[in-house]
């Protein structure tokens, strides 16, 4: 996990800039090795795809007690925001 002071830094890179977009959903990195936290409805498809037999995460839920137990979200595409800028003045310049 990241130290609490890495969540938001006023003059530096922080987790608030590490928002990810996948499948119409958003999430955030919560580990240095790529673990992403998102909403249930966003992860449901990946959990359903990985569920089989006694490992039915849809019916029984899923909790990995260690990194080795995490399930990859196969077939999911992840897009990471690399930068953003304020375009307010450009938009307003074209408005009447």
Written account of the structure:
There is one protein chain. The chain is of the alpha+beta class. The chain has one domain. Helix content is 23%, strand content 15%. It has three helices and four strands. It has helices spanning 40-50, 57-60, 88-94, and strands spanning 19-22, 25-29, 36-38, 79-80. The chain has a four-stranded antiparallel beta sheet with strand order 3-2-1-4, with helices on one face. A hairpin with a 2-residue loop joins β1 and β2 (25-29). The radius of gyration is 18 Å and the shape is elongated. It starts with 18 loop residues before the first strand and ends with a helix.
The tally of beta strands, per DSSP, is 4
Which term fits the overall shape?
elongated
Structural class: alpha+beta
The tally of helices reads 3
Return the average pLDDT rounded to an integer.
Answer: 76
Radius of gyration from CA coordinates = 18 Å
User: What percent of the residues sit in helical stretches (DSSP H or I)?
Assistant: 10-25%
Major sheet summary line? 4 strands, antiparallel
Distance between the termini: 48 Å
Strand percent estimate: 5-15%
Helices and strands, in order, run as EEEHHEH
- Count of distinct structural domains: 1
Instruction: Give, in spatial order, the strands making up the sheet with the most strands.
Output: 3-2-1-4
Q: Enumerate the spans where pLDDT stays under 50 for 5 or more consecutive residues.
A: none
């Amino acid at each position: 996990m990241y130290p609490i002071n890495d969540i938001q830094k006023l003059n530096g890179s922080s987790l608030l800039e590490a928002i990810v977009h996948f499948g119409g959903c958003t999430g955030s990195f919560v580990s240095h090795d790529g673990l992403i936290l998102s909403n249930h409805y966003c992860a449901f498809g990946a959990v359903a795809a990985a569920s089989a037999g006694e490992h039915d995460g849809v019916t029984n839920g899923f909790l990995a007690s260690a990194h080795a137990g995490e399930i990859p979200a196969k077939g999911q595409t992840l897009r990471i925001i690399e930068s953003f800028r304020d375009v307010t003045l450009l938009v307003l310049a074209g408005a009447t």
